[in-house]
């Protein structure tokens, strides 16, 4: 189970798009069930609150991932990611990362200076502070998710084309690249939902089999809600499915509802 919850919080950020109206607002919350077949391995949640930074109201996104049941006996995971970002520009002001994965822990906060293209990372476990140079308009892991949900170019993508976002994570800036695969009517616990399919390009190696080992389905409506994430791992595979939601800004389009 090592790093699986973290991986899903990263790839969940491919759920995106929409021209106006905005895809989300304060009060949105949803939950994923992460599972091997019928066995539940854990859950991940994301919600949007409101906070004040630099004397202005901003979005405060909170993402959590945790193992449950027998999986928790074998490998305990409790991860929390937070982001404070501008309601207009989506530029992040601050991120929080607190993780515990089988005893491996991190406790960090990052403070962005978008004017100077830098981020000050405070590591409370190591008791260190370090400033990193970043690219213009860089995002953190959670602000990337919300930035992409309102991205203006998604509707013009053709099958096989990609979109790239600069994202700061683990003390470095990298290109988060997503390939558009096509559309599908997806069967979910809520019914048959029109969806868009994307593949984020990930690093092959210990966790993932190949660069394109992840597939993500998002709702093809104004919410651009993540519906399913499927991963082919170095050992086996697993899925994460939308398990619950509330506070959506726009109607959730379902072609055929589950009886």
UniProtKB/TrEMBL annotation:
Short name of any one Pfam family annotated for the protein: DUF3108
Domain of life: Bacteria
InterPro entries listed in its UniProt record: DUF3108 (IPR021457)
Protein name: DUF3108 domain-containing protein
Organism of derivation: Flavobacterium capsici
């Amino acid at each position: 189970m090592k790093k699986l919850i973290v991986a899903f919080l990263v790839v969940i950020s491919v759920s995106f798009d929409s021209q106006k109206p905005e895809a989300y607002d304060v009060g949105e919350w949803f939950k994923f069930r992460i599972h091997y077949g019928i066995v539940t391995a854990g859950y991940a949640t994301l919600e949007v609150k409101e906070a004040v930074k630099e004397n202005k109201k901003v979005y405060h996104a909170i993402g959590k991932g945790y193992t449950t049941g027998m999986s928790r006996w074998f490998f305990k995971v409790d991860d929390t990611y937070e982001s404070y970002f501008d309601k207009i520009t989506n530029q992040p002001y601050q991120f929080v990362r607190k993780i515990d994965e089988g005893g491996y822990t991190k406790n960090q906060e990052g403070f962005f200076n978008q004017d100077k293209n830098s981020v000050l990372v405070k590591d409370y476990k190591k008791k260190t502070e370090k400033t990193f140079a970043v690219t213009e308009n860089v995002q953190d892991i959670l602000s990337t998710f919300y930035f992409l949900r309102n991205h203006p170019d998604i509707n013009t993508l053709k099958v096989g084309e990609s979109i790239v976002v600069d994202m700061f994570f683990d003390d470095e800036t990298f290109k988060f690249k997503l390939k558009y695969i096509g559309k599908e009517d997806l069967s979910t616990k809520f019914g048959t939902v029109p969806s868009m399919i994307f593949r984020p390009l990930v690093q092959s190696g210990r966790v993932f089999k190949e660069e394109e080992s992840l597939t993500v389905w998002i709702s093809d409506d104004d919410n651009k809600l993540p519906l399913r994430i499927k991963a082919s791992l170095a050992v086996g595979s697993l899925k994460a499915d939308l398990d619950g939601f509330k506070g959506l800004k726009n109607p959730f389009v379902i072609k055929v509802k589950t009886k």
